[in-house]
């Protein structure tokens, strides 16, 4: 019995220890709107240009992007397919698992459900929290994910940030400062990342908007039927009471 109690205690404490082990920082709110097809299209183009080389989205097919406003398979091929793949194929990474392990020390994860795993706010903050760090193998570090294996692939757009460490009320406070501007202003880059994260949220459940719309219609129908049922009840029993 004692062994069972110890096992249950360890099982309960394990998730807490995982969260405690990660340094963490306040996460910025991601401006997510998966009903904005233009933003989703921009995010999809960013994904295939900067993410798909290393990360796959193996639960998604290219032609599914017609659901977010791309008119035809020809437009899907023109905007999103950069290889000789067909519109009906899965969005697979060009990088093999063993190549990722050799180059980065770990295989880049599939991003099909990364937004559901990490959360939109985490991704939005993470992609804006890279800074130069010559002590790491890729030459980059991240305030959200310390010593991340992933290099800052968007640095040309954002520029290069540096870490600033200050002591406030006896506590060490870390922040980032733009040391070298990129091709975009801070607000432009924030919007660029917001579109990308918005797309990653959509990627995690492409049918979410349809599910929500159907749920609303079902609830309206049920409330309507409730009213009709009550009216029928009153009519049926009015002569008896």
From TrEMBL:
Species the sequence originates in: Nitrosomonas aestuarii
Cofactor: heme c
Cell location: Membrane
Superkingdom to which the source organism belongs: Bacteria
Primary location class: membrane
Residues noted as binding heme c in the record, renumbered to the chain: 51, 54-55
One GO cellular component, as annotated: membrane
Coiled-coil stretches noted in the UniProt entry, renumbered to this chain: none
Chain segments annotated as transmembrane: 214-233
Signal peptide interval: 1-20
Full protein name: Ubiquinol-cytochrome c reductase cytochrome c1 subunit
InterPro entries named among the record's database cross-references: Cyt_c-like_dom (IPR009056), Cyt_c-like_dom_sf (IPR036909), Cyt_c1 (IPR002326)
GO MF annotation terms: electron transfer activity; heme binding; metal ion binding
Residue span(s) of domain Cytochrome c: 38-204
A Pfam family hit: Cytochrom_C1
Alphabetically ordered keywords of this record: Heme, Iron, Membrane, Metal-binding, Signal, Transmembrane, Transmembrane helix
PANTHER family from the UniProt entry: CYTOCHROME C1 (PTHR10266), CYTOCHROME C1, HEME PROTEIN, MITOCHONDRIAL (PTHR10266:SF3)
Cofactor note (record): Binds 1 heme c group covalently per subunit.
């Amino acid at each position: 019995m004692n062994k069972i109690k110890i096992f249950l205690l360890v099982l309960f404490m394990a998730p807490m220890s995982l969260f405690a082990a990660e340094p963490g920082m306040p996460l910025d709110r991601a401006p997510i709107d998966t009903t904005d097809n233009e933003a989703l299209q921009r995010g999809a183009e960013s994904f295939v240009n900067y993410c798909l080389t290393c990360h796959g989205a193996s639960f998604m097919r290219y032609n599914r992007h017609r659901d977010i406003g791309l008119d035809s398979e020809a437009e899907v091929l023109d905007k999103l397919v950069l290889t000789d793949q067909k519109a009906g194929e899965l969005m697979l990474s060009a990088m093999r698992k063993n190549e990722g392990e050799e180059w980065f020390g770990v295989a880049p994860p599939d991003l099909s459900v990364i937004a559901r795993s990490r959360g939109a706010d985490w991704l939005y903050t993470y992609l804006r929290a890279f800074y130069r760090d010559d002590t790491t193998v890729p030459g980059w570090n991240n305030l959200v994910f310390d010593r991340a294996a992933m290099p800052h692939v968007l640095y040309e757009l954002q520029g290069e940030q540096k870490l600033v460490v200050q002591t406030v009320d006896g506590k060490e406070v870390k922040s980032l400062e733009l040391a070298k501007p990129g091709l975009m202003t801070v607000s432009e880059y924030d919007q660029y990342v917001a579109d990308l994260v918005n797309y990653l949220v959509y990627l995690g459940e492409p049918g979410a908007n349809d599910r929500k719309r159907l749920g609303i219609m079902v609830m309206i129908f049920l409330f309507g039927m409730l009213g009709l049922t009550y009216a029928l009840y009153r009519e049926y029993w009015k002569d008896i009471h």
